[in-house]
Structure prediction request, 378 residues.
Amino acid sequence: MTPKERVHAALEGRPVDRPPVTALYNHLYYQDHFCELTGLPPHEQWRWRYAEPAEHVRLYRAMIELAPFELLQPQHAPSREEREQTEIVERAGEWFIHHRAHDSWTPVATRSGHPTDYTHNERQTVFDEADARERIVIGRHEDALAAGHNDYLDEVVAQLGRDHFILSGGVAGPFWTSHFHLGLTNLLAMAIHEPGLVDLTCRLCHEQNLEAIRQFAAAGGDAIFVDDAIATSDMISPAHYERFCLPYMIDAVGEIHRLGHKAVIIYYGGVMDRLEPIASIGADGFLMEASMKSYINDIDAVAETIGGRVTLFGNLDPVGVLQRGSDRLLEAEVRRQAAAGRKARGFIMSPASPVTPFTPLARVQRFIELGRACWKTP
Prediction:
């Protein structure tokens, strides 16, 4: 079977020669390990991320050959205008991203590992309905396509889509994206004290998600994901989950299916107290976090409870097992995950979270090797 055939079969509950092996958010893996995978210096990653599509995919192919995950997630493309206005330049022995349009110079990180940083927003800018409707502006998918944001995805689908399964992109759930307007801590408090405003921000953010889903689907890949961030037991109650998250997940998955794509849902947190609502979403694939932070996500119990209704991704611990564990521990955990996966409608071997910047290529290759060998049928 080709990777494309194998993943489609797994997501549809049809027989496979072996489970597909992947790591979701693998576009981050190829960023984090760019130097290791290409042999190029760190500044070349930024040149790659602003390259013309054919050159971008040429390097992408080389990285895939060394770390052949079976659900490919292409990089997001800057607009054509931004690519044309951006250059990677050396000045006095240091490398910079030069944005010619406004003549700004941003130093390029010269260390290996994750090349960008992130902190959650704690600033509130939306205080009432008028603010929400003014500040939460819905970008049209047609405009994103015209600007060239699908260019890398289009090129990956054109060059690799015949044999490779393309996870074209994804969105975060609207409860999470509301924090960009309300502040994260405020959002969690407002779910109790100002639920009406949270309802409104969720509705507006969901409209933007639907536009993004339509943008990704236009490329003609195979699947789109929805990451329902902070919708888990370590963050909110089942009642708040069913109010602020579940309806939008059902609608987003319905739109993904309407557009002819498979839908994968992701929960980075505790899920055991909300498995039935999650199963009701109707997604094709479901990935959950590894057990941590005082909650337990038991893949065996999940397979027995809802595995007949959705294909499960593995939830192998990416730090304690993949990055730091012994080879014996990695092999044992791969086998344990596969045994649980046999109880589900379908199974895809995967770590629970993205591969860390500190996990060497040899370890990733060993994981892929073990995942491919863990269960085979004639």
